[in-house]
Amino acid sequence: MNKIRSPMLIVIGASAGGMAALKKLVAQLPKDFPAPVFIVNHMSADTTGEALVRGLNESGSLPCVHAHDKQPFKSGHIYLAPSDQHMLIAKGKILVTKGARENRSRPAIDPLFRSAAVSYGNRVVGIILTGYLDDGTSGMMAIKRCGGICIAQDPEDASYPDMPQSVIANVGADYCLPVAGMGAVLSELVSRELPKNKPAPEDIVIEAKIAQRVLSDLPSVEALGDQVPFNCPDCGGVLWKVEDGQFLRYRCHTGHAFTSSVLLAQQTVKIEETLWVALRMFEERQNLLVTMSKKEGEKSLTSISQRAKDSQVHIDRIRAMLRATDKDSHSEETT
């Protein structure tokens, strides 16, 4: 099989604890590093990410900037996904989109990894660093299926080990090592000669197109899996189950995507929201009954008082459920 020297891409995903890990990683890359580096670090929609850009520029030799739509990329540069937008990779350029959230995140790691795998196949090196839950696992599966390399931070080295542990358990890392050892491995990997790429599997191509908003229809999602009796917690649409071995994911036709653990966590959030609404309504009802009891005659007083007591029973039950839900949500975020 013919081998060729061709450009490599480094794609990195991080979440909780990511800033410190990313700064330590980029500090190891030389100024003449012969590959572009693309980073998704989970951030809320109301942050700019400027602190991370500044921190990476101060920590290493490679210039770091926020990615822009249709921006050509160059070796020896770091591109950071902007707040509240996905960063995707096409041939020779970056795509920045306002696609549907994946795993409750935008930017999300999986869309970056999948798009890179579709466009550059075995020339992609994926890295998963510290973070909660399992965003990045599905994307890393795509990288591996397209011939790329998987690197996971040693969970004992990670501030929050969930994400690297998920990749190790569900994908199998080619390298599992502390952040301090990644620079030398990357420098070795980007100097390899590689065989020509094979076309990406069709299901990975479909999901990459969905993230670009090129596809968002029922036939596309139906080609990925089977419809299930759950609703998308973000838009209320029907969900389809996508199976990657034992790793379960769910998609709706508008583009929202969830791993099973993230879907469970999001359902817990929606349950809590519903309970708070119910609590407010019962408390308002009780307050109204108390007000009425002060205005009504003796005959109506007993009936109104009993209804107010009944409302208190419901209020106490809902508060107990909220306390239980709060404990469950903390458990889901840390397991």
TrEMBL record:
It holds the Pfam family CheB_methylest. Coiled coil: none annotated. It is an enzyme of class 3 (hydrolase). Residues 3-193 form the CheB-type methylesterase domain. InterPro entries: CheB_C, Chemotax_prot-Glu_Me-esterase, Sig_transdc_resp-reg_Me-estase. Residues 1-20 form the signal peptide. PROSITE patterns: CHEB. This is protein-glutamate methylesterase. It comes from Halomonas rhizosphaerae. The lineage of its organism: Bacteria, Pseudomonadati, Pseudomonadota, Gammaproteobacteria, Oceanospirillales.
